[in-house]
Amino acid sequence: MSISQYYYIGNNQNLFFGVFSISLIGYILYTFGLPTVNVTFWSVLGYSLYAVFIFLFSWLAQFSFKTYFKLRGQKRVITINDKSITFPELGDSLKVIELKFSQIREVYFAEGRHGIPNNLIIKYGYDGHAYIAKDYLKPQDFEAICTLFKEALKINQISVK
């Protein structure tokens, strides 16, 4: 019985988007300042859009930092043995799914930009699905996982949809 383990690399994307959002808020506030409100239709519309952008980027920063600190220091691993695979439900999740290869209905790559395969989608049971994100793994680990899926499911090639 062979067991293969592949570790997720850091979640620096979340830290980047958090810092980027805070920087963008600072830039907008520095450039435009705090508006003084007139009561004309166009100024109210403009100030409303201004407030929406500030709130949107504040929410993005909060969400990114929350995800970064949730995953920081957590060991996230994909474990594949002869009968099953165990992996986090989403790329940024701590909830773990264990699937037996007999439960899996379909495995395919999600078509990304320009038709390039992006993530590995796994459909199981009646309506369950999960994915393994390519960006959260080392490229050679992702290829090894795909090879093990081909062997376990006895298929020649994983399709792109």
Structural write-up:
With 161 residues, this protein is of the alpha+beta class. The protein is built from three helices and eight strands; from the N terminus they run βααββββββαβ. It has helices at 12-32, 41-71, 139-153; strands at 4-7, 77-80, 84-88, 96-100, 104-111, 117-124, 128-132, 159-160. α1 (12-32) runs antiparallel to α2. The protein is elongated, with a radius of gyration of 22 Å. The model has no long low-confidence stretch (mean pLDDT 84).
Keywords for this structure?
3 helices; 25% strand; 42% helix; 161 residues; four-stranded mixed β-sheet; alpha+beta
Low-confidence stretches: none
Q: What is the tally of beta strands?
A: 8
Distance between the termini: 32 Å
Order of helices and strands: EHHEEEEEEHE
Task: Tell me the strand order in the biggest sheet.
Answer: 1-2-3-4
Q: Helix amount, in percent?
A: 40-55%
User: How large is the count of helical segments?
Assistant: 3
Radius of gyration: 22 Å
Beta-strand content bin: 25-35%
Q: What is the topology?
A:
Blueprint: E1 4-7, H1 12-32, H2 41-71, E2 77-80, E3 84-88, E4 96-100, E5 104-111, E6 117-124, E7 128-132, H3 139-153, E8 159-160
Parallel strand pairs: 5-8
Antiparallel strand pairs: 1-2, 2-3, 3-4, 5-6, 6-7
Briefly say what this structure is:
The chain has 161 residues and is of the alpha+beta class. Helices cover 42% and strands 25% of the residues.
